[in-house]
Every structure is written in structure tokens, then in C-alpha cells.
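Database export, one record per block. Field names are fixed; values are copied verbatim from the stored entry.
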Amino acid sequence: MNAEELSRNLLRLFEQGGHVLAEFIERDDAKMGPYSAASEMTEATTTMTELTQQWMSDPANFAQAQSKLLQSYAQLWNNTVMRMFGETVKPVAEPDPGDNRFKHPEWSQNPYFDFWKQAYLLTARWADDMLLNTEGLEGKDRQRAEFYMRQVTSALSPSNFPLTNPEVLHETLATNAENLVQGMTLLAEDMKKSGDLLKISQTDATAFEVGRNLATTPGKVVYQNDILQLIQYTPTTDQVREIPLLIAPPWINKFYVLDLTPAKSLIKYLVDQGFTVFVISWVNPDATLAHKSFEDYMQEGILSATDAVKRETGVDKINVTGYCVGGTLLATTLSYLATRGEDLFNSASFLTTQIDFTFAGDLLLFTDEEQLQSLNELMTERGYLDGSRMANVFNMLRPRDLIWPYIVNNYLLGKKPFPFDLLFWNQDSTRMAPVNHNFYLREFYNENRLAKGQLSVAGTRLDVGKVKIPVFELAAKEDHIAPAKSVYAGSLLLGGDVEFVLSGSGHIAGVINPPDKMKYQYWTDGKHADTLDGWLKTAKEHPGSWWPYWSEWLHERSGDWTVPREPGETLGAIEDAPGSYVKAKT
């Protein structure tokens, strides 16, 4: 260690840190507003204060719980002293399997770091147990307390602090604190390129470019309007199925999660199976599209795209797939058509889609009336919702995986994040049209009107039970955005035959799971039950990807084989895939 260089770097760190702090104070992050860091910290403080007061209202139980915690601390201290004298002792607390925060060897080998690790685990688990056993905390209040407890315990991990993280401490000594200076530089860069709220870099954004090494499946944009471009993909087989497939992705993210690298592309896989594939690429709306409504996304979105697909291919009916929010829009559209007696689709597939939002998980915490009012005021003022706000919410659902590892890597270790295509897509967020987004949050999350049969769109009262076409429904077992329990509940509302499939992993990895990876599993053929747990009791587990299973299901509902269709034979080609809409930045 060079003392002179260390002193010089610390002075640079303090100087640069002062500038960054001053800039941060002027940003929206530090101001009260929907989904901002300041508002969430305030909400967490309020929730934790109320929870503590509730614990203190029963002093006997609280004292007993504290006594157990102190006994655990005492045992940990005794073990630490014994280890310092060279004795081998069994840990008082160990990390859960898969907890990567403590994978560095010194978390276990060095008594100092091992002490902080175990003290943290004891405290966090004590707090979780206290919350679990808190009486009188029900429904949304309990859900809110559990959510903010997770935020607090994730933030307080010793892995997040330089003096209690062995890797950071070693790096600081080895580089004479150059890592901290570099980390402050990376923080300043992230602030400069962020929108409303800070986007912590999760990957090296310079390693990827849409159309160059992402979203490269060949095709053409064959139709477009104000809110979408319709992409038709070039066939790769000698014959294709007669009935084409239209995919409606979520408008909250960009469609190319379904077309990452060729090895991970669900779109390429479907084309290679002999399907004529069309995909909607939603516009990245600005203030000029502020008036676009949920009804517009149905009429000018799915229904306009459907009409274009039918005109391009010359068929009467098509197959259609909706992913996440795109699936909710599709379910609404199918209900609208069924209620009116219109028949446009041969089958529908839903990928991690919620129709019934009763069990929608922690996202329900961000849709109460007060937050919706604040969000609506912000969107009305600007004419759109900056994508960073929804990205911030999604990251908070999994702070241990999506926030703190990058803070440690980028700002404490001073390292640029590793290139990863999926995380590049995750950071490539889009704006949202306020009228549409407000309707979606209020009518589905807050009021759950489609499931209740109370939703009206385009002057039509909708009944999802009238949807009788064959449906393929995919849920992901560890999904934190569209929980599998919620997806299953929605599938029970449909009026026709439903092929329900459960995949391993979460909202993205559970869907983007190529067959050659053999990374996760999936379940099928469970007997009809009122709950997902009941269905799982009789379901069959299969290794690998669900893609071939879905492909077989689609083949059975896609008509005869016919000659391949080149993109734009009827409508003409506007530009090459992936089109220009997807390349627009926030």
C-alpha cells in the first residue's frame, strides 16, 4: 500500500463525491415523487416505524424475542473468539443456498468478516420471524411490511459496505482506493445518462446494438401506424404452416426480449419450426401520443395488426400470442370480440399473463389511489411516463439480485459490469402513454375489473368467460411480476379448453429458455383444480425447455403445410427488421 497515493485518491474521492452529491440533490431521485428513491425511503421508514411501534405494544413478547436475539449474538461472539484461537466451530447462521453475496472465501475463512456475515443473517432472520408472528397485520398491510422489510434487510447487508466486504476492502488496499475513485466516476456517468431516476448500469451497454448483435432474425416491417410497427419474419423452411402467428409483446419493454441472440431467440425458433411469424413492435411514445388509450392499443394495436396479418397472408383466422402486459391486452381483446360475436382467431397463447389480478404480488403496492394520483399528475405534466420509473419498481421487487450487486461491483469495486444481453434489454426501457398506462394500473391492478366482469372497452361490457377458443397458458414458477398463482387464477376464468403449463425460473428466464440449454424444467397435464398448488399435485415434470411442447401444440392448430411466404408480398416492405420504433431511446 502506498500511503501517499492512498491519501491523494481519498482527496479525489471526497472532491468528486461532493460534486456527485450536489448533482444528486438536484435530481428527481432526491425529490418526493412516484416511485422515486426519496418517496420509497420515506415509505419504508414510515412502514418500519409503524411495525416497530406494533412490536413495542406487546412488551413481553418483544422482550422475549430480543432476549433470543441477544443469546444468538452471545453465541456468535463466543464462536468468533474460539475461532481466533484456532478452534473449529459450527456457524450459528449460514447463508441460504444461492446467496451470492457471501461467495468470497474470506466471508467464511476470516473470523472478522464471518462475524459480520453471521450477525447480519441472525438479525435479518430475527426481523423476518418477528414480522411473520406479528398478529393483526393482514392483507395489503402485511404485504407492504414484508416488501419494505426486504428492502431494508437487503440494503443493510455487510456486503454493501467497504469496511465489511472483504473483496472491496482488499481491492481498496491493493489499488490505494483507486477503485472507489473509479466507482464515483461510474456513478457520475450513470447519473448523466439516466432519465428521471438513476439507472444503475447492469451491463456494458457498448457491447450491444439492436439490429447488429441483438434482434437480428431477418424480416421486414410490413405495416405501421402511430403506435406499432408490424414485423414479418423471413421463412427458413421449405414449407410453412397455413395459419400464421401474431405475437403481442408488452409495451412496457421492447419486443426483442423474444429475439436476443440467435441462440436465445424464441422468434427464430418458431420460424425454424415452420411458422409464419409476425411480431408487434410498440412505439416508444412521446408527448404527442399522450392521448393514446388502452382502447387505442386494442383497436390500433392488436386488431390493426391482426387485419394486416390476414391481408398479407390471405387467411380468415390467425393464431395469436400475448406476453405479460401484451397478454392482458390480448385477453381484453378476445373478451371484446367474443362479447360482440366476432371470430378472428383460431387459438391464443398467453405467456406469463395476468387476467385476474387478485394475487398480483408486490406490484399491487404501487397502485393505491394516492400513488396513482401522483403518477397521473406527473404523466399529465410531461405527456408520458419515463421508463426509468417502472424499471425502478421492477428492480425493487428483487433488490438483492437487481440493485445491490451492481452497486457493489460498479461503485465500490470500481468495475464496469459484465456484458449480458438480457440485462442490456432490461435497461433499454420505454416511455408509456399516460392515458393508456393509468387505465391499465387502475382498471386491472387496482380494481381488477376484467376478472370481475366489470370492465367496459369501446362501449362493450366484457366477459372473459365467453372466450371459447383453445388457449395455451404459460406461467413461470418463480415469477415476481406475474406470479404463477395469479396466472393460474386467470386461466380458470376462460370459457374454453386451456392447456396450462408451468415453467421453471422467473418472468424472463422462464420464457426465454432455449431447448439446447436444458437449464430449467416445466410441468404439464395437471388435473383441473381450484388452485395452482392443487394442479401441481398431479402435474408431470419434464426436463428442459417448454418451447418444443408449445411448438407441437401450435402445429396441431396451424392448418396444413403451404409454400413459404416472403415478407411483404402483399403489403410491401417498409424497412428491414427490427425496424426503427424499437431503436428509439428514452
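Remark 1: The longest helix spans residues 59-84.
Remark 2: The chain has a mean pLDDT of 93.
End of record.
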